[in-house]
Amino acid sequence: METGFLSAFWFIIVAAVTVPLMLLVGALLRPKSRVVGASHDSYECGEKPIGSAWIKFNIRFYIVAIVFIIFDVEMVAIFPPATMYRTAIQQGNVGIVFAEIFVFVGLLLAGLAYCWVRGDLEWVKGVYQTNRRK
Amino acid sequence: MAETAYFAHSLQTWLGGGPLWIWGAVSAVVVIFGLALPFGGLATYAERKIAADIQDRVGPNRVGPFGILQFLADAVKMLAKEDFIPRGGDHFLFNIAPVFVVVGACATFAVLPLSKYLLGADLNIGVLYVLAISTLVSPGLLLGSWASENKWSLLGGLRAAAQIVSYEIPVALCILPIILISGTLQIGTIVELQGWNLALEGAKSPHFWNLFHNPFTLVSGFILFIAGLAETNRIPFDLPEAESELVSGFNTEFSGMRFGLFALGEFCEVFVMCAMVTALYLGGWHIPFLDIESFGVTLPTLLVALIQLTMFMIKTLLLVFVVMWLRWTLPRLRVDQLMSLCWKGLVPICLFNVLGTAVWLWVFHGRSLAQLIFQGGGH
Amino acid sequence: MSSGSQAILFAFQLMTLMSAVLVAFHPNILYASVALLFTFLGVACMFIFIGADFLAGAQVIVYVGGITILILFAIMLTQWMYKATLRDVRTKILLPVVACGLLVTPILLKTTRLIADLGPLGTAETMTAFSFSPKTQVIGQALLTSYVLPFEAVTILLLGALVGAVWLARPQ
């Protein structure tokens, strides 16, 4: 087990423990609370809440998440070859490494360009609006 | 390069033996309770003072000298507030959301290069660790906004998650040129490679700061800062917390210490983002034009560490000041402007920067602009 | 590995398994998603323990930061999904358990035989040396030389996934 990660784990554990610790301190300090009238209703600028706490399905959130995952995987996959770029320069065979990275990034750019041209990256006035008009 | 520059190791040598894992725990407690939490508190005070300055008023000045203990008063107030969970709200998720946010913000302090000898853990995957831990924030926000059982919180939370998730791509793509230049994911090594060496034929590569390595990294540095602003939900990207639109967005129903923890998480994330920009682009703990380890006199390690720490903090806090300055200067971006800025603006520019840096490194054999100017044809 | 490290590894493995069981059996779909998040985190921790640090980071970035968000978006935006009970825990448990047992047992047998063939995990010195070795660079070197064709094929696969996903999401 890497000792570096041991230190990193300790940071995560300390950060995670801080939260219940603070809430515990608060629980010890504060006076008891009671539910009075509408004090525990959800807040809507003073009006009574209308309807349940649901919103209509917006596909744009989902599209953003999917496009993000694609780019996320591409980006994580490009990190290891990028770390070898410096050694490749010192060894002199940069051309092929650059070509590989170029193909990778180029195809990524092509995909982004496709989505852009077809209007899938629009947030408000694109897919959703077209959907509503139909 | 071996992972040797640990805070825990340094503590072990400076304060006598003992098993390493105890010093790891001590270093975690010292950094989080000594740097992260006080910074979170003082940042709230600093923000109010800077806001007051920009808006031509005084700001907090009652508690302590110049009002500097205001954050302690705020903390006590928040701790003593009612532990409020809205009717129908989900207790488990309501309580676990701040954990994700605080861990996502504070656990990254482990790899920040505060100094050559004050690194919590110089992981082999340092940069990747920061990116990974930062992604823990978005499920926290989503779960918290859902657990509030409030339409406006839910919408704010969804927008916040979509925004954070979208802007992670420019952040990672802006870190890529630095990886291309440095050839490693270790943050300590990346900072060391940016040292200015007056004796140019010395062993250290005389790169100046990565920001000036080539024109593409210049652009990347600024884009990293902008994308970092969006990641931490700061103006001009703070639509999820939009005070004028969604009440308070996803943290409407969070009161008292839970809200305090969200605010703490936000400020710690700002610090981490600025620290990353400093470490990757602005030379970390290097003092410009000075190499204090190559003087004739060898200074004690502790003194060197403190000087480097001061330098790092100066650079990072300058960036934090700019972040707070921007809050009261720029208007808020609308959600579709935000998304098109990311996907149609920053991502293509970042991809071109990556390719451009790769071409530059190829053509000039990995030398920076500074090396070309000051070393001429040398290698 | 020291006994302390083994104890921590065991704790993470237990957390992963318990979260996985919760994902499969919890009636509340949102709690099941949170359990899925912890399963991903547990797997990332197990990656760290065998020294695959880059994989652990990639796991957290892609799965916790991406897939979990996707699943949570789908749940939070779909009204009926929250009201549907995921499964009736008391009945219909025998057949799925038997089917899973039949599928998993050969894999378990094969894996334990493979691990036994590999021999002991190595001395503390070799493990330490392995821990500090630059694995990301090794992966990068492999991706650029031996595995360059799968590397580029992955790009095409991702491009296809991107085009397909946005095409499916378009209003037809």
Main attributes of the structure:
heterotrimer; A: 134 residues; mainly alpha; B: 379 residues; 13 helices; 61% helix
Please describe the topology of this protein:
The complex is a heterotrimer of chains A (134), B (379) and C (172).
Chain A: H1 3-29, H2 59-83, H3 85-91, H4 94-117, H5 127-133
Helix pairs in contact in A: 2-4
Chain B: H1 7-14, H2 20-54, H3 70-79, H4 91-106, H5 126-134, H6 137-147, H7 151-182, H8 187-192, H9 215-231, H10 257-281, H11 301-327, H12 335-363, H13 369-375
Chain C: H1 3-25, H2 29-49, H3 53-77, H4 79-83, H5 94-118, H6 124-132, H7 135-144, H8 148-169
Short characterization:
Chain B has helices at about 5-15, 20-55, 70-80, 90-105, 125-135, 135-145, 150-180, 185-190, 215-230, 255-280, 300-325, 335-365, 370-375.
Structure description:
The complex is a heterotrimer of chains A (134), B (379) and C (172). In chain A, helix 2 packs antiparallel against helix 4 (94-117). The longest helix of chain A has 27 residues, at 3-29. Helix content of chain A is 67%, strand content 0%. By secondary structure, chain A is mostly helical. With 379 residues, chain B is mainly alpha-helical. In chain B, 61% of the residues lie in helices and 0% in strands. In chain B, helix 4 (91-106) packs parallel to helix 10 and helix 7 packs parallel to helix 12. The longest helix of chain B is centred in the first third of the chain and has 35 residues, at 20-54. The two termini of chain B are 23 Å apart. The model of chain B is unreliable at 1-5 and 198-206 (pLDDT under 50). Chain C is mainly α and 172 residues long. Chain C has helices spanning 3-25, 29-49, 53-77, 79-83, 94-118, 124-132, 135-144, 148-169. The longest helix of chain C is centred in the middle third of the chain and has 25 residues, at 53-77. Chain C is globular, with a radius of gyration of 20 Å. The chains are: A mainly alpha (134), B mainly alpha (379), C mainly alpha (172). The interface between A and B is large, with 71 and 95 residues.
Percent strand of chain A equals under 5%
Query: What is the typical, i.e. mean, pLDDT of chain B?
Result: 81
Instruction: Please give the largest β-sheet of chain A.
Output: none
Write down the overall geometry of chain B: globular
- The whole-angstrom Rg of chain B is 22 Å
Total helices of chain A: the number is 5
Multimeric status of the protein: heterotrimer
| N- and C-termini, Cα separation of chain A | 58 Å
